[in-house]
Amino acid sequence: MSRPAWLVLPTYNEAENLEALVRAADAVLAGASPDGHRILIVDDDSPDGTGRIADRLAAELDSVEVLHRSVKEGLGPAYLAGFATALAGGAGLVLEMDSDFSHDPADLARLLAAARDADLVLGSRYVPGGGVEDWEALRRLVSRGGCWYARRVLGLGVRDLTGGFKCFRREVLEAIDLASVRSTGYAFQVELTDRAIQQGFRVAEVPIVFHDRRAGESKMSARIALEAMWLVPLLRLRRRHRSEPRGPRGPRAPREEREPVRPAG
């Protein structure tokens, strides 16, 4: 039985970006997903009309559907709701990306190609060939410092732990006990990657260039950054108290300790 690739797009006040992003992603996925694809927009009751735009796109495009949530709870809960919907819908691969063009929709094809040889693919800013554009020096320092801090505390070799451009095999999301994930902000990205590695899944980093958002306001705040700071040591502590089965592919050396995957194109 074929299992389609699902792209989960969490939105809050992305009316200026959403339509162009969805149409661009839909075109890329149509050519890169031989088993079909779905795009799931998860909107947290955006006051700027993002939800209405999402509904119109779902009416126009067969591949698009919308999950409306009544409250804004943060990035983590929105993704968890989207992942649950994708798995229930039969997804074989589940992708996540920002909804503001920070991630280039064209790179979706490269993540899907890398998933042929990995269980979790990370679009990475901090491997050779990756990078960021249009960031001031302080933001670059905070981002790199946050990744370095998480890597050191958790003892991981992954270069970009805080990025939000990923492709999961279905088996990864089924194995890492999503119901027990508690992070709500950007620490959510660290937690899921850490759990996948602890399960022994193969992880690959594909170089990407991260762009500043096209329109609208950034969701990053001092509170979100501070949450990540104190939650990372807690993630390590929770490892000792969580008994999880090994991944279906069995324990193996994490992929990130080898050469990053660099698909053609």
In short:
The protein is of the alpha/beta class and 265 residues long.
Annotation keywords:
disordered C terminus, 265 residues, alpha/beta, 7-stranded mixed sheet, 8 helices, Spore Coat Polysaccharide Biosynthesis Protein SpsA, Chain A, single chain, two-stranded parallel sheet
Write up what this structure looks like:
With 265 residues, the chain is α/β, with parallel strands linked by helices. The protein has one domain (5-257): Spore Coat Polysaccharide Biosynthesis Protein SpsA, Chain A (Alpha-Beta Complex), CATH 3.90.550. Helices cover 38% and strands 16% of the residues. The protein has a 7-stranded mixed β-sheet, with helices on both faces. Strand 1, helix 1 (18-32) and strand 2 form a beta-alpha-beta unit. Helix 5 runs parallel beside helix 8 (222-239) and helix 7 (187-198) packs parallel to helix 8. It is globular, with a radius of gyration of 17 Å. The two termini are 29 Å apart.
The main pleated sheet reads as: 7 strands, mixed
Q: What is the strand content? A: 15-25%
CATH class (first level) name: Alpha Beta
The number of domains: 1
Which sequence of SSEs, written as H and E, runs from N to C?
EHEHEHEHEEHEHHEEH
Continuous helix count = 8
Number of strands: 9
